[in-house]
Structure formats: C-alpha cells, structure tokens
Amino acid sequence: MDLSEIKAAARKAGFERRKSAFETVGPGQSAHLSEVLAGYRGVPLSGYMSIRTEINPLPAMAEAAAYGPVGVPVIQGAGLPLEFSRWEPDAPLREGPFGAKVPEVEDYFDPEILIVPLVAFDARGGRLGYGGGFYDRTLERLRARRATLAIGFAFDAQEADDLPLEPTDQPLDMIITETGIRSF
C-alpha cells in the first residue's frame, strides 16, 4: 500500500471511532476546552462549526466571544489556506463548503489560537484530518508569522497508536478530549 491508501484506511478507522464516541458520549463535552480558553481571555481565536460527528466546541467559543474575537474557518478554495471570519453566538450564518456554516458577514482576521477538528490524533500531537490539507497549510502560514497555538478537540476514542504522517503535517500543541487535557 502507498501512503495515500494507508492514510485512507487510518481515516476510515478514525471516522468509525469518532462516530461510535459521538453516539455514546454525545456531541458536546466542552468543559475542558472552556477551562483552557479561560487562560487566554481576549486572545484572538478560531473554533469551528461542527459537522457530522465532530465534537462541538460552540459552548466554549460562546464563552470566549465575551472577551475577544472568535472566528470560524472559511474555505477559500482547494489548495489554499483557510481564512477566519469573526463569529458571534447569535450572528446570522450561511452554508459554507462541506456543510459547515460560516458567518453571513465576512470579517476576516488572523487568530493566535486554533481549535482544530480532526479525524484521529496520536500521543505525540500528530493529527489526521479530512485529507484536504487546509489546516496544515493554514498553521504553516500562521506559525511563520507568529506563535500560533493549535488545540485539537476530539473524543478520547479518536486516539490512534500510530498515524501515517508526512513532513507537511502540522503538529498539535495540545489535545482536549471529553476527559482531559494533554500538552505536547
């Protein structure tokens, strides 16, 4: 098998584990995420609008929005880094690519903290996403400008023993699950 086939198999397994956790644990378990973000009050951050069986960061994002700018990713096109548009808890949203909602009014900024969705993660901070490379390109761009904290947000069940990673895959600085916080 080549690397793309190995990654596809790892993604499939990660999706299955995430779906099972979503059905068992439920979509929203953001107490630990809120705890971490409380230490960064006012620092510009981006979360995400959960789709399918992703763990839901919205409660923690709403708390953070009371102290500083919070955004959500907006896909600009294939092969391009993400841009982040300011999000408010009750602001109007529209359909974005891949079914994720995005703010109706575009107000872009560069976050210093990214809450990152994922399919699988490992004990060293490796992350396997959906395969488009959006977060890898984005983190590389942001980290070239200034320190940028990448926080993976996932279910415990999404942890994998060994992920097929490439040199372009950007590592997580921290992973937060429904049961705890790990820093790398």
Structural class by sheet pairing and helices: alpha/beta
- The coarse overall form would be globular
Instruction: Assign the CATH topology.
Output: Rossmann fold
Low-confidence stretches: none
Strand order of the largest sheet: 6-3-2-1-7-10-11-12
Tell me the Rg in angstroms.
15 Å
**Annotated CATH homologous superfamily:** NagB/RpiA/CoA transferase-like
Distance from N terminus to C terminus (CA atoms, Å) equals 30 Å
Enzyme class: ligase
Cofactor: Mg(2+)
Pfam family, one: 5-FTHF_cyc-lig
GO molecular function, one term: 5-formyltetrahydrofolate cyclo-ligase activity
Molecular structure report:
With 184 residues, this protein is α/β, with parallel strands linked by helices. It has a single domain (3-183), classed as 3-Layer(aba) Sandwich (Rossmann fold). 28% of the residues lie in helices and 21% in strands. The strands form three sheets. The protein has an eight-stranded mixed beta sheet, with helices on both faces. A two-stranded antiparallel ribbon has the order 4-5. Strands 8-9 form a two-stranded antiparallel ribbon. Strand 8 (120-121) and strand 9 form a beta hairpin. It is globular, with a radius of gyration of 15 Å. The mean pLDDT is 94.
Structure summary:
By secondary structure, this protein is of the alpha/beta class. The protein is built from four helices and twelve strands; from the N terminus they run ααβαββββββββαβββ.
Secondary structure layout plus pairing:
Blueprint: H1 3-25, H2 31-38, E1 45-46, H3 58-65, E2 70-74, E3 83-86, E4 93-95, E5 101-103, E6 108-109, E7 113-116, E8 120-121, E9 127-128, H4 134-145, E10 149-153, E11 174-176, E12 181-183
Parallel strand pairs: 1-2, 1-7, 7-10, 10-11
Antiparallel strand pairs: 2-3, 3-6, 4-5, 8-9, 11-12
Helix pairs in contact: 2-3
Protein name: 5-formyltetrahydrofolate cyclo-ligase
Keywords: ATP-binding, Ligase, Magnesium, Metal-binding, Nucleotide-binding
EC number: 6.3.3.2
